[in-house]
């Protein structure tokens, strides 16, 4: 795989594809001087986009008991980070235009580290404030990555999206499976289990640092993209992103509690979640590659969503003897649904700055919508005193995702106009 731009001709063609004027070509260095270093940086950044979310759910009962949290507060704690993903996502393109995407990613990684340590060290106030900061940080970084992939790996967008999605799933799996054992190993302290995840965040910032010194050609000219909010296809991509994410964050936030309610221990429930997420590594890499081999992505969207729903209903209702089989099915489905959602942002965009703005819309509005899922699960559980009625939430969200995905999966581009900003 040759990811370097080796000639002025290739560079010019890439920049023209991004609608950059010819006079920029003469003064712009190669877009990716060290593609392997950028790839490593992307992987390490992606590894940090889920531990702050998936590390809490196996410890939720312990944290609630330790701090005296009510059921409503515990439900808010699972919803708040996801809501922040959506509310803060629109800041990403604004910050990128002002400071450059590479600098923003570095700064927000440090902010993420601060949020992680805050929520693990300062009681109830720190727990909520740190969760808010962590969710906001993840929301901003997550918006920027599809634009970077579209810009620097345009010819391998599907594969590269799968690679960093696979890294994202690995981070989620590691956090879900190891947080409880880490807490028990170090004095049975949930604060250490949550605070441990500052270390990979700082490591990612260290490896991302070289990117700040590189000038990436397509980001030397800033564009304002108009018309996304009036484009039906953009809304279909957004709804698919939001609805599939809602199911994902229900799993991150509530699946261990559901399984504990069915008789598993906290450690066992965390391992089931971890195992399910590990399975996502395979489908998150394979689904975009397979989906881009056909004429469009509609069939792939339906298949992965049906796998997801099958796994969810199995974990909720089927006998526990077959739980691991249902967890694997769930992982295969959710790895594919999320990686396809990110791939659709890239495939439905003509160039990198449209991808960045569509990413902002899809993740900003989509994650705000997604936050309602975990919140609804908490409310239904409080009202009914059990988990059986949650299946209706799964069914409604899953059906909505399929309908939106059938529109978003068509081989079309969003219809927008781009305006180059002066200065």
From TrEMBL:
One of its GO terms (molecular function) is transmembrane transporter activity. Keywords: Membrane, Transmembrane, Transmembrane helix. One of its GO terms (cellular component) is membrane. Gene3D superfamilies: MFS general substrate transporter like domains. Coiled coil: none annotated. It holds the Pfam family MFS_1. The chain crosses the membrane at residues 36-54, 74-92, 104-122, 128-149, 161-182, 194-212, 233-252, 272-292, 299-320, 326-347, 354-377, 389-413. SUPFAM superfamilies: MFS general substrate transporter. This is MFS transporter, CP family, cyanate transporter. The lineage of its organism: Bacteria, Pseudomonadati, Pseudomonadota, Gammaproteobacteria, Pseudomonadales.
């Amino acid at each position: 795989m040759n990811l370097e731009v080796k000639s002025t001709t290739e560079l010019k063609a890439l920049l023209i594809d991004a609608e950059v004027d010819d006079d920029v070509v003469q003064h712009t260095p190669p877009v990716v001087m060290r593609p392997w270093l950028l790839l490593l940086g992307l992987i390490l950044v992606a590894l940090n986009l889920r531990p702050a979310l998936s590390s809490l759910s196996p410890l939720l009962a312990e944290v609630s008991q330790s701090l005296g949290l009510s059921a409503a507060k515990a439900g808010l704690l699972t919803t708040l980070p996801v809501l922040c993903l959506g509310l803060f996502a629109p800041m990403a393109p604004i910050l990128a235009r002002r400071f450059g995407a590479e600098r923003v990613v570095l700064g927000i990684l440090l902010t993420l580290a601060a949020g992680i340590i805050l929520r693990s060290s300062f009681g109830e106030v720190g727990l909520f404030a740190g969760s808010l900061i962590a969710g906001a940080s993840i929301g901003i970084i997550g918006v920027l990555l599809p634009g970077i992939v579209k810009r620097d790996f345009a010819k391998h967008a599907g594969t590269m999206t799968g690679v960093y999605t696979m890294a994202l799933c690995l981070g989620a799996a590691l956090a879900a499976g190891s947080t409880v054992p880490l807490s028990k190993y170090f004095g049975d302290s949930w604060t250490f289990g949550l605070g441990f995840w500052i270390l990979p965040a700082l490591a990612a910032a260290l490896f991302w640092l070289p990117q700040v010194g590189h000038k990436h050609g397509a980001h030397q000219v800033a564009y304002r993209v108009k018309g996304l909010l009036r484009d039906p296809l953009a809304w279909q991509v957004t709804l698919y992103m939001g609805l599939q994410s809602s199911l994902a964050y229900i799993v991150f936030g509530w699946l261990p509690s559901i399984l504990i309610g069915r008789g598993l221990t906290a450690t066992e429930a965390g391992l089931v979640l971890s195992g399910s997420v590990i399975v996502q590594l395979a489908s998150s890499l394979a689904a975009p590659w397979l989906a881009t081999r056909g004429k469009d992505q509609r069939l792939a969207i339906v298949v992965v969503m049906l796998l997801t729903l099958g796994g969810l209903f199995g974990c909720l209702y089927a006998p526990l003897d077959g739980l691991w089989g249902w967890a694997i099915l769930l992982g295969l489905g959710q790895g594919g649904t999320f990686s396809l959602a990110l791939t659709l942002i890239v495939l439905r965009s003509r160039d990198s700055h449209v991808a960045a703005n569509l990413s902002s819309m899809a993740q900003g509005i989509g994650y705000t919508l997604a936050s309602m899922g975990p919140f609804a699960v908490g409310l239904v559980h409080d009202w009914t005193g059990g988990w059986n009625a949650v299946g209706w939430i799964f069914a409604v969200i899953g059906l909505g995702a399929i309908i939106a995905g059938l529109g978003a999966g068509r081989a079309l581009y969003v219809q927008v106009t781009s305006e180059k900003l002066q200065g």
